[in-house]
Design goal:
This protein is an alpha/beta fold. The protein has helices at 5-19, 77-90, 113-137, 146-149, 159-163, 192-240; strands at 49-50, 56-57, 66-72, 97-104, 150-155, 173-177, 183-187. The strands form two sheets. Strands 5-4-3-6-7 form a five-stranded mixed β-sheet. Strands 1-2 form a two-stranded antiparallel ribbon.
């Protein structure tokens, strides 16, 4: 008996309808460790960073860099900075990491900005001097300037706080962003989970770089191989000519 293809299609659709379409996958709940806050935003638009001294770090220069943003105010910044120091010591030899201290000064009138900036500079420079002394006492060796790794910026209108959707400004916050400027973690205290996550991000970034270097070297080797084949083929053609 010859089957009717339309009838077969009808039966197949009927069976599918009776079984029901597969349920949509539900997003996995975030498993949070101590001091780790939910990541409510993952895609952060890139932006230039202007520090206390007017130096600008262009957004495009941070492509591939791991950036840790520490948010605080005059009451919480010191605590956040101490966390950054601990994270630095956990991964001291890692390259391509920038620590950005974002100080909320939005409550001050713009007429007071010169005074606020002067006090912020004084606190920043004192922190760097103390940290330099601490590193020397602990025997750490490094070939970079601390002021190039630790950057402080004043958020006079709380725009950066808004970008990261920070609501509770009474506590310090640390956001970890990978080389693609994607938020990988949000912490409201320092702990070993934070140190481990930073280590994982560094390892992923370095592994990606090695893979890219390997692919590039393979491309170069292939080009050189085909070039040699072309030379050998040309020489053989001349000999047989």
């Amino acid at each position: 008996m010859t089957r009717n293809p339309r009838f077969a299609l009808f039966v197949a659709l009927l069976v599918f309808a009776c079984m029901g379409a597969p349920a949509a996958a539900q997003p996995a709940e975030q498993t949070l460790g101590p001091g780790q806050a939910p990541v409510s935003i993952t895609a952060i638009p890139r932006f230039d960073i202007k520090d206390l001294y007017g130096r600008i770090v262009p957004a495009q220069d941070l492509d591939g860099w791991i950036v840790l943003y520490c948010f605080g105010n005059e009451d919480t910044a010191e605590q956040g900075i101490s966390w950054l120091k601990k994270l630095t010591l956990d991964h001291f030899n890692a390259q391509g990491i920038l620590y950005v201290i974002v100080a909320d000064t939005s409550k001050y009138h713009k007429a007071l900005f010169p005074v606020v900036k002067k006090k912020a500079k004084s606190a920043y420079e004192e922190n760097l001097a103390n940290y330099t002394k601490e590193l020397e006492e602990k025997g750490y060796k490094y070939d970079f300037k601390l002021e190039d790794r630790y950057v402080m910026t004043l958020d006079t209108a709380a725009k950066v706080f808004d970008i990261f959707q920070i609501k509770d400004r009474g506590i310090p916050h640390i956001f970890m962003l990978d080389g693609a400027h994607t938020v990988r973690g949000h912490f409201t205290e320092y702990n070993q989970d934070a140190a481990k996550l930073l280590g994982d991000i560094i390892a992923e970034r370095d592994a990606k770089k090695l893979a890219e270097q390997y692919q590039l070297s393979m491309k170069v080797r292939k080009r050189q191989m085909w070039k040699r084949y072309a030379i050998i083929g040309g020489a053989a053609w001349l000999l047989l000519k």
